[in-house]
Amino acid sequence: MESIINSLFVKISGNPESQPVVFVHGFPYDHQMWQFQIEELEKQFYCITYDIRGLGNSYVGDGQYTMEAFVWDLFSVIDRLELHEPVLCGLSMGGYISLRAVEKNENRFKALILCDTRSEADNNAGKLKRAYAINKINTMGLNAFVDDFVPGCFWNDSIENKSELFNSVLTRSKSNNPLGVKGSLIAMLSRTDTTEALKKFNLPTLVLVGEHDSLTPPAVMKKMAKLIYKSQFAVVPGAGHMSPLENPDFVNEKIKNFIENL
Ligand code: MLT
Q1: What is the position in ligand 1's atom list of the atom closest to the CA of 25?
Q2: In the chain, which residues have pLDDT < 70?
Q3: Ligand 1 probe mutation, 127, 215, 216, 241, most atoms within 8 A of CB
Q4: In this structure, are strands 20-24 and 205-210 parallel, antiparallel, or unpaired?
Q5: What integer pLDDT is reported at residue 154 of this predicted model?
Q6: What pLDDT sits at residue 37?
Q7: What does the pLDDT read at residue 1?
Q8: Domains (ranges, CATH) in the chain?
Q9: pLDDT at position 194
């Protein structure tokens, strides 16, 4: 079922009586990034995913977003659907949203799944990279930025051998509204650092990272996992930063096992 909640495009599937799982996608993509997880996990869980404000089919508005507003959006979806203690699963930018949401109120969640993300805020080099990205969109257009950025999200091997998948991510990313993409970049560059909060997290947490993720490499995520008291860490073989798309079987198995044993 598709729905609009708080001007966000939301996709809901599975049995509402079973454990809810909310999936938050990465940048500059949309809810489709979880297609292989939902296909499998909806058989067992109540699966909810949505397009982050400014991306996919969600409302773009004035393009002025903050990470905090993205968290309010997440809470608005959970509230409207009356989800009781969902498992929260976020990748990269979706991970930034999830980390801040748990820092704000972990009692709302049953567990956390972090894929290919980091707790640190952008450093100076990272902030400048965002500035150049915005400039590229302004001067050369969104396609030029996406052509530059998206290949870095995949393992080279996936680009070659899963070219249909890679091209569909490229095409969908290019179909975003440039204002929404720039707004997301500003929200990311101005986000807070959640590293200190990790030490206080008391939620069971599954940390997954693609073996060849060059944006949030395994070493970074392992360090993050070590700061979380109840964490499990796993490296996804044969995958880059888009691990749930690049190796869905492995990721699905890990997620299923993790939730079944909560
Ligand atoms: C993402 O996949 O969401 C982005 O790589 C996050 C980022 O640019 O920091």
Answers
A1: 3
A2: none
A3: 215
A4: unpaired
A5: 97
A6: 98
A7: 95
A8: 2-260 (3.40.50.1820)
A9: 98
